[in-house]
Amino acid sequence: MSLIGRLDALANADTTPWHRASAIGKLVLAAGIVLCAVVSRSLSLVLALHALAWLLVLSCRMPWRIVLGAATYPLLVSALFLIATWGGPARAQLLLVLRPVHASLTVLWLIATTPYPDLFAPLSRVLPRHLADGLFLTYRALFELLGRAERLWRALRMRGGTGGPPGRRLEIAGEGLATLALYGFERSQHVYAVMILRGHSGRICGCRHWAEFGPEDAWVAAAAVAVAAAAALLGGRA
How many angstroms separate the Cα of 98 from the Cα of each of 27, 69, 85? Predict the structure, then answer.
C-alpha cells in the first residue's frame, strides 16, 4: 500500500479518541501548536511543544515507519541551513532543527486522524470557494502523484533502471518525470470530466459533520490547555 493509502486507512480507522474528535478542534489545535513553536524564541517552550507533538503522534497508533519518515525528512532540509549557519549559537541551531520536525509531526498527527474531506471542509468556509476547492484537489493529486512515483521507482529498480552510467540514469530520470507529468495531466482531465458528469455545483467540500463536537473533544481541549500552560510558563525563558 502506498503512503497515501496508509494515511487514508489510518485517518478512517476510528481506533482512538483523536479520530472521533471534531475536525475543526484538531485543526485549531495543530495550528496553535505549530504557530507557538514558530514564533517563540524560547528553547524550553519549543522542547515542551516538541514532546507534545511526539505524544500526539504516538497516541494515535501510527506505524513507526511513517513516524520516523516524518521526523527524518525535515532534517534533510534543515541540514542546508545548519551548514549555512555553522559556527553560530548552538541554541539557534537547535531551534532550527526542532521547528521543522515539530511541524511535520503535528501535521502528520492531524492528517492521520482526520479524513481529508473533514480536513478541508473548515477551510472551504473561510477561504474563497475556488481556492478551497483547488487546495482540496491539489492535496489529493499530490499524494496520488507521490504514490505513482513510488511505484515507478520500484519498477525501475526491479528492472535495473537505476544502474549504468550517470548519463543513462539521468535520461531515465527525465523519462520518468515526463511520464509523471503526462499522468498528472490525464488524471486532472479525467477528474474534471467525472465532476461535470456528476453535476458539479461549484463546491467540492460540502461536508457538514466536521464541526460535530463530542466527548472525545475533551482530549483536544486538554491538549490545548497544555499548550497554553506551556506558553505561559515557558514562553519567557531562554
Answer: 21, 15, 15
